[in-house]
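Quick illustration, no need to memorize.
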Amino acid sequence: MIPKISIQEIVNITDAEILTKDIDLSQTVTTFSTDTRTINQGDFYIGLNGENFNGEKFIPQAVEKGAIGYFTTTDSVSDGAIALKVKDTKIAYLQMAQYRKNQIKPKVIMITGSSGKTTTKELVYSVVSQKYKTVKTLLNHNNEIGFCQTIFSMDKNTEVVIIEAGMRGLGEIELISKYAQPDISIISNIGTAHIGRLGSRENIAKAKCEITDYANQNGILIAHDDELIKNTTNFRGKKLYYSIKDVEIINKSIGYSEFIYKDESYILNIEGEYNIENAISAIEVGKYLSIPYELIKKGLTEYKPIEKRWEIEKIGGYNIINDSYNANPESMKAAINTILDLYDDSVIVLGDMGELGENEVIYHKEVGEFINEKNKSSFKILTVGKKAKFISDEIKCCFAKNFENNKDAACYILDNIKVGTTIFLKASRFMKFEEILFELKGENK
């Protein structure tokens, strides 16, 4: 069951001006919609405005489909629904989300980081949902609109909500924190993702540490053990820092990791030290929420990666590991390290990494240098794109070749790589590495 909000409450919460005359302010709303394509009878419509779109233009369609009311920043009134004028429809949406959160009163977990935040979110969800009714951010809906959508997906029985927070600049995580007011804040790491926008790791740390700007000071910050985070955060509550150095790895093999953390053993049905490191934060969340050890362990064991994040499938006879949702130098090196350690005679396909700023050439070369340091000669490294060419040009320890586009890389694989080989894909999202998979499948999309 979803709690109801009256029109009078909406007016009070958003300080809205009522444009429609002679209305019943006791009427109630349960669902808020930002999309006229999926709006239902009785929903309240919020037309969001951005640089390239104006959701208020679709108010007539929303009313035609049965919206009970809508926010507007103008004085125009569409007959048949309640018009409420606000200064900013997005802020009004955030205010309503905060009100709904306060109606239900779940524990709020908020997660950010330069890389690993979605994996961490899924690991935390897998653990927490063992004991509590839990709602999480879906897919990569990790901006302020995704926060609102997540909050409005809760019903009154929700006990924990997990919010993933991404950012492309300063102030964005602070805005989500203001309305989420997290009880548990997690920073998975500080890397170089978006350094082209923010200019330095120090500024990235500043942006990520905004997560605690409005956090519950009686709550906890769980963060990667990084001096940059320690020196940047102004959180006054309990702080816990972790790293891979805190665990003893018992067994790491393909599709399996076993480790000991604080005298307890855990299993992940996935490889990679960085996955173990992300799992530590999930363990600490479980402990903080008084989840028994056996349920924490069960939650980690049941974790499965989501689409394009270490997604394993068989295509055209090849064993594909698709980790091409996004990439930055840290995540690329961590993934390559796992492949080189566990998968013999594999093909590693790497693409351009975006938003690395004026030092993008250096960052790409460093990936090539990292591969040289591993000194594995049995692997083939294929790169796609002008920036990724700096990776392959740097490689001396094994075969390396650059391609201008995904189709050429796929054709090379089909013509030269034997069936049964493991092929690993890693690149920034804009490289559209799914095109390689379409070619290997013979779909040619």
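Residues 272 and 326 are 17 Å apart (CA to CA).
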